[in-house]
Structure formats: C-alpha cells, structure tokens
Amino acid sequence: MRGDLTIRTVRTSSGATAVQVVRNEGKKRIIVKHIGSAHSKNECQRLVTEAEIYAEAHCRQPSLFAKEVSPSPQLDLAHTKLVGVTHLFARNALLACARRCALGALPELYLDLALMRIIEPSSKLRTLELLQCYFNVRYAERTVYRMLPKLLDHQEQIETAAIKTARDDLKESFSLVLYDVTTLYFESFKEYDFQHPGFSKDNKPQQPQIVIGLITTRSGFPVMHEVFKGNTFEGHTMLAIVRRFQQRVGDVKPVIVADAAMLSKANMQQLEEEGYHYIVGARLANAAARFIDLIHSELPRDDKTLRRFDYDHVVKQADMVCEFSEARYRKDKRELDKQVKRALALLERNEPGRRAKFVKKSEEKDKPFIFDTELQTKAEKLLGIKGYVTNIPEEELSNAEIVAYYRDLWHVEQAFRISKSDLRARPIYHHTQEAIRAHVLICFMALMMGKYLEIKTGRSLRQIRQDLWRVHEAQIRDERTGETYVLQMDAGELASSELMKLLNSDFPH
Q1: If you compute the radius of gyration of the chain from its CA atoms, what whole number of angstroms results?
Q2: Which of 386, 390, 388, 351 has its CA nearest to residue 367?
Q3: Rounded to whole angstroms, how far apart are CA atoms 448 and 224?
Q4: Dist CA 368 CA 118 (whole Å)
Q5: Can you tell me the mean pLDDT for 98-118?
Q6: Is the confidence at residue 1, as pLDDT, over 60?
Q7: Within 13 Å and on the Cβ side, how many CA atoms surround 346?
C-alpha cells in the first residue's frame, strides 16, 4: 500500500502475471498504471519494485510507513549470458492501443491474434510460434482452435467498442458514413458452403471467395462489417448492414455514401422509404440517351463546373450532380482513343470483336462485325464528366459538398488496402463459415487499432510498426544464480513521440 495506491498482481489468460498500480474508490477499482506482464518470478519481483517506486512518487497521500525499495542486484558481466531478445515494448504498446479502442475487456488471446496481424500476419500456427519467439507468450494450439469460433460471440461487443471509440475519442457524430465492399479469394478451387466464385475485385473469378462489406467513419475508422457468400451481388449487401448499424447508433440517421456498385433503383428507393439520405456514384454510361444529351448540352466544359439535374424519372426525389474535370477529360480521352484503336485493329484483321468495346455485330453476312459509331458518340459526350446521385436537396447540401463527401470514399478503400496489404487478410487458411468469420473479425480488430493509431498520430501503420519494433529487450542470465534479468533498450525519441503520449496512460514504463 502506498498512501491511496495499491500494488495488484493478476494472472492473465496467457499465463503471465500482470502487475498494476490501482486505486480503490468505494466499490470501484481504477487501474492507475499497468506496469507490465511477467513470465518469471524474478521478472515479477522487478515489476513489483517498479510499481512500488511509481506508487510512492504518485500517491496523493504519502505512506507513514514507506517501505524501502531494495536496490537492483549488481551483475558481473563476466558471469552473464544473453539468452534471448524479445519485443515486449511493441506488444505492450499495441495492447495499450487495444485498451484505447475499448477492446481491453476481451480475452488476451484475441488481442494477441489481432496485434500479430499488425506485426507479422501469418497463419494461426505460425502466429503462435511468433508470439512465443517475440514475446515469450505461449498458447496451446488446441486452445486457440477451440477459442477461435467463440470470438463470434464477442462481435457485438467489438463493434460497440468501435462505435464508442469513434464517438467518444475520435469525436464522430455519425452524420455521414462510408460504405464499400471488397472480395477475398481462396487459393483452393474447391467450393464449400460459404466460399463461392463470383465477381472478384482481385481478378480471380474462377476461385472461391467471400464478400466483405465495411462501414467506416468519414476519417476511415471502421465501425461495422459483415461477411457474405462469395456469389453475393455487392449491391445486395448494403441494406442489411446499414440497418444493423442504425440499431447500434440510435436515433442518428447518417448520410450513406457508396460507390456506383451500390446504385440500384431498389436500393435507393428502400433507403428513401427508411428515411436515409444517400450519395451514390452514378453509372452515366448506362443512362438513357436523352438524359446524356441533356447533360452534354447543359453542362459547361469549364474545369470543376457543377450542375444538378432532375433524376426523378429514374428514382423519385433524386437528383444527379454532374461535374466536369479537365484532368478527368484527358484521362477519359486517352482511354477512349486506346479502345477505338483496338476496335479498328480487330476489324482490320477480321477478328471476332467481343474483346473490343466499340465493336458490334452486323446483320451483313460478309461483315459479321462493324464499328459501333453510336457508342463512340455517346462516350465522347461523357468525356470528363462524373455523376453523383443523391436525394439531399441543394438547400441542405450544396453540389460542391455532395462531391466532397463522395470523395471521402477513398478512406474506406484505403482501409481495404490496409487489410489486404499491411494486415494481409488473405490467404485464409480456414474452410468453415465460423472460422472464416472469426478470421475476418480478428482483421477488423487489427484494422480498428491500426486506423486509430494512424488517425491520432498522422503517420502510416507501417511507420508506427517500424518504430515500435526498434525497441528490444535483452534477456540476460546470471550464470552464478541462474536468474534471468530483462534489460530494455532506450526508446530514444520514440519515448517522447506523439504515439507514446497517446498511449501513455495505458503503457507500462
């Protein structure tokens, strides 16, 4: 006891002993400082000593009977041996981040599986090896595979934590959310009950896959996800997850921003009936010729020009905001010229034209394929133009704001890129639906932690990981006594960085 502070040791699920400085306020116990987790008797004593020093320095009421802290033992380097190197600093930092994201109440196994997606994503078996190698944390293989499907029981708790973090820490009002989908394919060609071939964003249409829908805040922080069968049309994924999100956030009706794949008359009508505002990318190439002619004639070709058109003939109470961009015009023109050249070359060689956009079948027997001049004219009218369908009146949201909100979709696209690259959500080494969903949920937790750190520090997850990994702990054994001591590298500039200031209250020093 140190005045009003108490030293507490508690056994963790990994078998370690956590040492904490706590304060009791009535029936409530508050963790003032998490000192660290010990994996040996000697290490535990060192952490307890460190806790006593901290408590003595920070207690509000000094103890009348202050205990003299025994000095650390002196080591003779001639009789010591380096027996191991760990990265507990990195693990402690990411566990602190998990607590900042309101995930601290989950079993430590799940947190370790999530943070390893950030450190070195791999199969579950390899992850167990790395946890022992890097952190001296041991889990039985049987325990992991038994516990993995049970993570799904915590999905509501995890997504509630994500919403709480976004609302309380990141100050999100949920007035606007972003929605998109991606696909994850499997190396196998064998279909199971959940993995099916479908439209693949990874250009793997012949291989089984799953479809993942993700809702993020405007800053890109993930708040909800869902996993669908691989042959699910992405336009059919949005309404279910939006309704579930609405149940969690309460009375707030966010503006739903989604890309053109979500654009269907049924989707927009359903959102309208349920009281949602939406901004969805338009597929202008599929629009009626009369509507394209209207846009072509009334939209000035000055850079960044915006014009709103009545879209009520397609969806009741909807408008389409169109924007002309010089940069987009140049890009579209290059692509159009390339496609026209390809089509003409195929016709010149008298080859089937199914691989070319501007080739169509002919009714003439001697010329089975001809150049599609009507389609070329239609495409030329739309050069440089992007459309956005919305049911938000211009008095409530200007045309420029509509475009700006839609462009925020890059945040959710970046979240998917992080999942596929930094966190390596695939390859997936599971076949059952429960195990696949649990794997995706672990990746979702890792994405929460990674995006939280990126948003708060303004640095990339890769840079943060590299900084944390530079700090090692040396395991030094005294050959005379057999005791092993831990010596941590100086954290240097990292100790005073924005990252450590952010995690300071949850990080052991």
Answers
A1: 29
A2: 351
A3: 10
A4: 56
A5: 94
A6: no
A7: 22
Q: Please name which of 150, 152, 128 lies closest in space to residue 441, comparing C-alpha atoms.
A: 152
The 3-class SS string of 257-297 reads: EECHHHCCHHHHHHHHHCCCCEEEECCHHHCCHHHHHHHHH
Least Cα distance to 84 among 475, 486, 366, 489 occurs for: 475
- Taking residues 136-145, report their average pLDDT: 90
- List Cα–Cα distances, 13 to 111, 138, 140, 430, in angstroms: 11, 10, 11, 24
d(CA 415, CA 408): 12
The CA-based angle 473-479-480, given to 5 degrees, is 130
What does the alpha-carbon distance between residue 376 and residue 357 come to, in Å, rounded to a whole number? 9
Residue 424: the pLDDT is 61
| CA distance readout (Å), 150 to 15, 129, 131, 295 | 20, 22, 20, 54
Alpha-carbon span 327 to 286, nearest angstrom: 22
Give residue 100's pLDDT: 93
Tokens standing for residue 101: 């994201």
CA distances, 201 to each of 166, 245, 262, 289 (Å) = 28, 25, 15, 29
Q: 475-503: per-residue pLDDT in tens?
A: 888 887 788 888 888 877 887 788 888 88
State residue 65's pLDDT score. 45
- Mean pLDDT value of segment 438-465: 92
Residues 6+ apart with CB under 8 A from 403: 306, 321, 323, 388
Rounded Cα–Cα distance for residues 473 and 46 (Å): 14
Q: CB 478: neighbour CB atoms within 10 A?
A: 17
| Cβ-proximal residues to 180 (8 Å cutoff; 6+ apart), any chain | 213, 214, 258, 259, 409, 412, 413, 416
Where do the domains of the chain lie? 1-72, 81-259+409-481+489-509, 328-381
- Tokens 């149940």 correspond to what residue? 247
Please, are residues 285 and 254 in contact by the beta-carbon 8 Å criterion? no
CA angle 457, 461, 465 (to 5 degrees): 105
Sign of the dihedral through C-alpha 340, 341, 346, 349: positive
Q: Tell me: the pLDDT tens digits for 41-67?
A: 777 877 887 777 777 666 654 444 444
Question: Cα(7)–Cα(20) distance, rounded to whole angstroms?
Answer: 6
